[in-house]
Amino acid sequence: MSISTESKLIRVGHSPDPDDAFMFHALASDKIDTGPYRFTHELVDIETLNRRAFSGELELTAVSIHAYAHLTDKYLLCPCGASMGDGYGPMVVAREKCAIDDLRDKTIAVPGTLTTAFLALRLCLGVEPRHVVVPFDEILDAVERGDWNGERVDAGLIIHEGQLTYANHQLSLIVDTGEWWMGETGLPLPLGGNAIRRDLGPQVIGDVNRLLKQSIEYGLANRQEALEYAMQYGRDLDRPLTDKFVGMYVNDWTLDFGERGRKAVAELLARGHAAGAIERKVVPEFVE
Fold first, then answer.
1. In a shared domain, residues 70 and 156
2. The overall pTM is greater than 0.85
3. Which of 7, 59, 85, 183 is the most exposed place for a label (fewest CB within 10 A)?
4. Catalytic residue among 14, 25, 66, 160
5. DSSP secondary structure string, 222-272?
6. 160 catalytic residue (yes or no)
7. Low-confidence spans in the chain with pLDDT less than 70
8. Same domain, 260 and 217
């Protein structure tokens, strides 16, 4: 599809994992008419995207909800594009079973301190966990070895497809933070969303949000095609597991946070503030 020479560039950042790939397939593969907008995509791990968002270089970026709390001066949350853990979510795994309380005395490999996974674990334990930051796709190996660059690793906080593959590494589940959160609040755990830069103005913000939703709708309506695209980003996942993983994080919640999803975001940020993990009280703002 031809693009006008006067097209507006929208730089998009998202994680190199199957659910984000599924969500952005239509935009990345030129499946929908983007009108005057030209989208380019950067696939980067979520913690790197969280950190980069502080400089506001990307017009549209995936962010952890935890990170969003520190970025409200630059970004609005899109009402579509959410990753929600509806009774499931990031998990802590270890070589040997132990009680949740025992994790306070262990060194945990984590995918980044601005991830919602890290915030949820902190809320679950009641203290900031002793941790070492490890790339998300190397955490399982680090736990299996018990080491990361010479530092002892007792357990790992896993996100993305590791939630389905940790048993292949002979590891045991200690706690599922999404399950814990549901038990505490009765709400899904809002892990991530897409944030759009405030300075783009109402017209562009509205248009880009609409195109993002169209991309998600296209993937859901053309599931096998979008799964084929997403599979290239599924480490150790066959097609059935890719389908299962995508279904966990691209669903009705992804089309719209809805009232309950927005309540979950507000509750997470409020609890993060009360625990001292978020400096100020944040009221989430969504694109209208």
1. no
2. yes
3. 183
4. 160
5. THHHHHHHHGGG-TT--HHHHHHHHHHHSSHHHH--HHHHHHHHHHHHHHH
6. yes
7. 1-6
8. yes
